[in-house]
Amino acid sequence: MSSTDSNVIPDASPLELIRVQVKPDWLDYNGHMNVTYYTMTFDQAFDKFQDRMGIGREYVEQEAQSFFALHYNIHYHSEVTRGQTLTVTLQLLEVGEKKIRVMMIMYADGSSNVVATGELLSIHVDMKSRRASAIPKEQREQLDLLLKSHKNLPTAHWQDTP
User: Fold this and answer.
1) What average pLDDT does the structure give for the chain?
2) Which residues contact residue 111 at a Cβ distance below 8 angstroms, ignoring those fewer than 6 apart?
3) Who's near 52: CB < 8 A, 6+ residues apart?
4) What does the pLDDT read at residue 10?
């Protein structure tokens, strides 16, 4: 993916990545969404982010490089129940030689009601050696461009979590 592709030119707002409806089988015996499905929803949003940035499935298949989750921190802010529509946005927080760190925010029913936040540290990996490796220049430039647009966004949504 070239750095001039219009779908990756960032603006100064979090990227809206997915919108999903909570399915009945996502509920646990307490009648709210099971923790497994928070992780799955955040993971699907991160996959969309990777595709948008040119570091998704095609990147893995063509370049034999990928990103692996190294650390996930999920905070649950309020219950999610059957039929609610969830939207996940992503803010890029950090780009390093071999890593990226993002914050994803999950909203319910098209409102500003934050139901969960997920912070992910992901490491760049050479799929042949299965070892951490430097992010290639073209992909790093794309990520740095987005980071520059996201660096002054507020972070209060997840900093207030106990």
Assistant:
1) 90
2) none
3) 7, 8, 15, 17
4) 59
- Topology (CATH) of 15-152: Thiol Ester Dehydrase; Chain A (3.10.129)
Tell me how far apart the alpha carbons of residues 116 and 99 are, in angstroms, rounded to a whole number. 23
List the domain boundaries for the chain.
15-152
pLDDT in tens, 119-132: 999 999 999 999 99
Which residues have CB under 8 Å from 84's CB, separation 6+?
Answer: 21, 22, 108, 109
Written as six digits, the tokens of 54 are 């040119």
94 strand-pairing partners: 101
**Residue type at 59?**
Y
Secondary structure percentages of the chain, helix, strand, coil, to 5: 30, 35, 35
Q: Which alpha helices (DSSP H) does 8-136 contain, by range?
A: 35-52, 57-63
Are 95 and 104 contacting, i.e. CB atoms less than 8 angstroms apart? no
Question: Do 17 and 89 contact (CB within 8 A), yes or no?
Answer: yes
